[in-house]
Amino acid sequence: MTTTDRPWYIGLLLGTAGWVAGVFILIFVFMLFKPEAGNSALVIGFVLLGAAWGLFMVDRDGAFVSQLALALSVAGQFAAIFGIHEVFFKGHESIAGLAVIALLLQIALVLVLPNRMHRVMSTLFACAAWAFAVRFGLWDDIRHFGSNSPSPSLGMAIWGFAIVWIPVGAALYMLIRTEPRWTAAGREALMRPMALGLIAGLAAATLLSYPLDSFPWSASMHARQNWLALWPLL
Questions:
Q1: If phi over 0 gives left and psi between -120 and 50 gives alpha, with beta otherwise, what is residue 91?
Q2: Considering Cα of 50, then 47, then 19, then 197, what sign does the dihedral take?
Q3: Cα(28)–Cα(33) distance, rounded to whole angstroms?
Q4: pTM across the whole model
Q5: CA atoms 112, 193, 14, 61: torsion sign
Q6: Which of 5, 89, 176, 200 has a CA between 20 and 30 Å from the CA of residue 120?
Q7: Contacts of 11 (CB under 8 A, 6+ apart)
Q8: Tens-place pLDDT, residues 106-139
């Protein structure tokens, strides 16, 4: 049995471990180099992403090397997003803007990094970033996010739901309909992880589109009640 035949739950645990390890790597890098400036963070981010790409090219599906590459990629993504925001969008403190940066980065990583688990997770987090961009672009921003944020009407909530999830569902539908074609063309290594990531994105719609209000995170917080509660209906 090869490493590509690992059960899905083993891959999920390995992927989660890689993301947790990436956070610790990022903390270590910031403590070591103190890249307060956006330029430094941007350079460090792309260096880490380049190292992850190199490790994936050496061993695309091995357990240890791929997990190290995944951890480096996670750290690089956080650093790159911070650096891009500081260099090009400093002074525009917008959650929607950060989400758009994350969305574009995840799409690029799906195409560039040749690892099945990484492509699945990048597609999943691209769905998350898209949902965040629409949600916070329509209703919330960082200046007044909280219990006093304006509540959308039923029509706007449904409209936002459609903007987020109809394109995701349509993309998944097209991937499924054209599976024989892209399998015959030898693009299975790219398309199948994307399909799995889209399925995961639709299945996790509750947390992806309504994460900070689904659960109160402290005794002083209360879940807001408005029409966005319809978003988890997927």
A1: left
A2: negative
A3: 9
A4: 0.78
A5: negative
A6: 89
A7: 117
A8: 999 999 988 888 898 899 989 989 988 888 888 7
